[in-house]
Amino acid sequence: MKTKQKPERFIDEEGKRVDGRRPDEIRPIHIESGVLNRADGSCYIELGDNKIMTAVYGPREVHPRHLAEPDRAIVRYKYNMASFSVSERKRPGPGRRDREISKVSKEALESAIFLEKYPNSVIDVFVEIIESAAGTRATSLTAASVACADAGIPMRDLIASCASGKVDDTIVLDVNEVEDNYGQADLPIAIMPKTEEITLLQMDGNLTRNEFEKAIKLAKKGCHQLYEKQKQALKNKYGGN
């Protein structure tokens, strides 16, 4: 995606979006696990022009110790956009948006982890957005889940996360940057694909009930596509069919 201006139309006469995709197509996906030697688990993901690195440390002892929970592990999730990740340089350090994304992502990830297996410990998840092109909260959560699996942390299932949206009164999968900036709605979700249990659901914009149900169904379709790529990335590192 080169242009950042609002197009006259988001979907042309042939049913193609501004980046050439059909409404139900996800952007190209690349996932690699175990890319950082000094982390317990790690993942690098590209979704379209998004480029994100995730590292996991733990379970390990909590510092400061008063934060420890005697019956379970705690998760600390830090989402950070590098200053150079967007076209207009971002001020260094976490902002309000970063803290909000960290909170909801932590809660979504916790749903999948058997926290009770590691009392008095912490799992630290660090997410660094190297290049941002819409959908980074969902994409980073997908990567964080792979990094946790790479670290050997027991999980009910991987978490796969994707967004759907609305442009030109049409529900589309995996909104790109222009669609995110100027579209009518954006709906990121996260699920555990085996059961389709939703662990994150947010919405910006307005959808009718029928549109909402279609957007959820389409986002789940994207999550399942990501899930296959997640499993393949882990198989590529550890082998297996």
UniProtKB/TrEMBL annotation:
<dbReference type="GO" id="GO:0003723">
    <property type="term" value="F:RNA binding"/>
</dbReference>
<dbReference type="GO" id="GO:0010467">
    <property type="term" value="P:gene expression"/>
</dbReference>
<dbReference type="Pfam" id="PF03725">
    <property type="entry name" value="RNase_PH_C"/>
</dbReference>
<feature type="domain" description="Exoribonuclease phosphorolytic">
    <location>
        <begin position="157"/>
        <end position="222"/>
    </location>
</feature>
<comment type="function">
    <text>Catalytic component of the exosome, which is a complex involved in RNA degradation. Has 3'-&gt;5' exoribonuclease activity. Can also synthesize heteromeric RNA-tails.</text>
</comment>
<dbReference type="InterPro" id="IPR001247">
    <property type="entry name" value="ExoRNase_PH_dom1"/>
</dbReference>
<dbReference type="InterPro" id="IPR036345">
    <property type="entry name" value="ExoRNase_PH_dom2_sf"/>
</dbReference>
<keyword id="KW-0540">Nuclease</keyword>
<dbReference type="GO" id="GO:0000956">
    <property type="term" value="P:nuclear-transcribed mRNA catabolic process"/>
</dbReference>
<keyword id="KW-0271">Exosome</keyword>
<feature type="domain" description="Exoribonuclease phosphorolytic">
    <location>
        <begin position="25"/>
        <end position="154"/>
    </location>
</feature>
<comment type="similarity">
    <text>Belongs to the RNase PH family. Rrp41 subfamily.</text>
</comment>
<dbReference type="InterPro" id="IPR050080">
    <property type="entry name" value="RNase_PH"/>
</dbReference>
<protein>
    <recommendedName>
        <fullName>Exosome complex component Rrp41</fullName>
        <ecNumber>3.1.13.-</ecNumber>
    </recommendedName>
</protein>
<comment type="subunit">
    <text>Component of the archaeal exosome complex. Forms a hexameric ring-like arrangement composed of 3 Rrp41-Rrp42 heterodimers. The hexameric ring associates with a trimer of Rrp4 and/or Csl4 subunits.</text>
</comment>
<dbReference type="GO" id="GO:0000177">
    <property type="term" value="C:cytoplasmic exosome (RNase complex)"/>
</dbReference>
<dbReference type="GO" id="GO:0000175">
    <property type="term" value="F:3'-5'-RNA exonuclease activity"/>
</dbReference>
<keyword id="KW-0963">Cytoplasm</keyword>
<dbReference type="GO" id="GO:0016075">
    <property type="term" value="P:rRNA catabolic process"/>
</dbReference>
<dbReference type="InterPro" id="IPR011807">
    <property type="entry name" value="Rrp41"/>
</dbReference>
<dbReference type="InterPro" id="IPR020568">
    <property type="entry name" value="Ribosomal_Su5_D2-typ_SF"/>
</dbReference>
<keyword id="KW-0269">Exonuclease</keyword>
<keyword id="KW-0378">Hydrolase</keyword>
<dbReference type="InterPro" id="IPR027408">
    <property type="entry name" value="PNPase/RNase_PH_dom_sf"/>
</dbReference>
<dbReference type="InterPro" id="IPR015847">
    <property type="entry name" value="ExoRNase_PH_dom2"/>
</dbReference>
<comment type="function">
    <text>Catalytic component of the exosome, which is a complex involved in RNA degradation. Has 3'-&gt;5' exoribonuclease activity. Can also synthesize heteropolymeric RNA-tails.</text>
</comment>
<dbReference type="Pfam" id="PF01138">
    <property type="entry name" value="RNase_PH"/>
</dbReference>
